[in-house]
Each structure stands twice: as C-alpha cells, then as structure tokens.
Amino acid sequence: MSKPSPRSDRAYRALRQAIIEQALLPGAKLPEDEIGEHFAMSRTLARSTLARLAAEGLVDAPVRRTATVARPGLEEARDVFEVRRALEREAVALVVRRWRPDFGAVLEGHVREEEAARARRDDRVSIRLAGEFHTLLAGLSGNKVLERALGELVTRCSLILALYGRPHSSECAVSEHSEIIAALRRQDIETAVRLMDTHVGSVEQRALLNQLQGTEVALGTILSRYGEDDGALNVVAMTPSGRKARGGAA
C-alpha cells in the first residue's frame, strides 16, 4: 500500500480528531469537494482520506453518494459495548501480569493531562483523553491485536455516545481512571478488572437516546480548528443537519 500524501494525511488526522472529539457528529456530511478545497488537495485525495476513515468505521462512504460520519444503530451499540467490556477486562489482566513501575508513570501522566483539561473546562479534549486512556492501557498489554481491536472499539464508542449519550463527566472519568491505576500498581488483578468493568459499564449506561439540538455550524468552520496541528481545540459540535450538540466520552 502506498504511503498517504502529506496533505491527505493531515486531512485524515484532522477529520479523525474532529470526529473523536465529537465536533463532527454522526450523520454529518463530508463532501469531497469541500474537504479537498479546505486542505488544498484533489477530490481523489479527499476520497482516499475518507476511505481510510471508513476502514476504521468512523465514516460511511457509499459509492456515488456524499460520505457522512458513521451512525451506529442501537443494536450495534449494544454489541460494541459487549465486546469492548470483554476486551477491556482482558487488557487489564494482561497489564497486571506484565506490570512494571514505569507503566504507572505513563498512565498517571495521562491522568494529569485529563485533570488539566478538566480544570480548563475543555470538554473536547476531555472527551478525547478519556478514550485515549483506554487505548494507552491496551498498548501496555503487549498484545498488538488486542490494542488495535480495542482502539477501534473505543473510537466507535465515541460515535455511539455522540448519538445517544448523556453529557460527559470528566470528574468521574479522572477519578475512576485513578482508581484503576492504583489497583494496577498493587497488581490486584481481581480489583483492577472489576473497576474497569464497572467503569466501562457506567460509560455504556450513558448511551441513552438524546435529541440533538443547536444552531448551524459549517464544515469548513469546524475543520479550520483542526487542520493546523494535532492539538485539541474547543469547537462547536456539528450534527447531521449542521447543528451543535453535547455528547459523552468513551
């Protein structure tokens, strides 16, 4: 497979982050011409960028129709959380068995980033960091297949919560992540697995149907906040009809 062009890669990273941070919400239209114009690239490159996102389950890109941010159904949402909870339990068990003191430093450093985002009341960054805690933990498991699978499930959960979730509680996420780290440090596998299962279960419980409301925001306005770098930025979320809304975190 050929390496993506720098512009295509920048567009991919910007769109992916905007989706994960719920600035672009499920069902939002992603026209190739507008994306190409925004990132100064051809429609062919825009199409390949959307194909990369579609391969991750973040975008629906039907032939000869405008691509949209994916909209997982409720049945799929239940299936996703069922599999995610099983993999999260296994990831925690593997991390305990491989535990090293530097793992704790890595995870606690991430939690400090979450605390800083909460202090700034930066909901977009809080949502992204909450999910990244789980992919970071999976990376410490030493199992690349599990890491990749769980990473895809975490991003899928971000879409589900954007559609159906209650507003994100960064305070709960930070405190629960800290409790999990404490159990990992003690190498208490039973407690760590139980805490993780309870934590992901509480995320699942927030996935309740929520009417999206708000005012119109253009795609270009959202992408202008994401195209320059990989840093998180506080932006208004865009719904399928171009309206802003609140969501949860994974």
Tell me the distance between the termini.
Answer: 31 Å
CATH class of one domain: Mainly Alpha
Would you identify the CATH architecture of one domain? Answer: Up-down Bundle
Counting copies of identical and different chains, the oligomeric state is single chain
SS summary, helix count: 10
In total, how many beta strands? 3
Relative helix content: 55-70%
Indicate the structural class.
mainly alpha
Instruction: Show unreliable segments.
Output: 209-216, 230-239, 241-246
Going by CATH, the homologous superfamily of one domain would be GntR ligand-binding domain-like
Biggest β-sheet: count, sense, barrel?
3 strands, antiparallel
List the secondary-structure elements in sequence, H or E: HEHHEEHHHHHHH
Residues in β-strands, percent: under 5%
How would you sum up the global shape? Answer: elongated
**pLDDT averaged residue by residue:** 84
| Radius of gyration, in angstroms, nearest whole number | 18 Å
Q: Largest beta sheet: what is the strand line-up?
A: 1-3-2
Pfam families: FCD, GntR
Protein name: GntR family transcriptional regulator
Keywords: DNA-binding, Transcription, Transcription regulation
GO molecular function: DNA binding; DNA-binding transcription factor activity
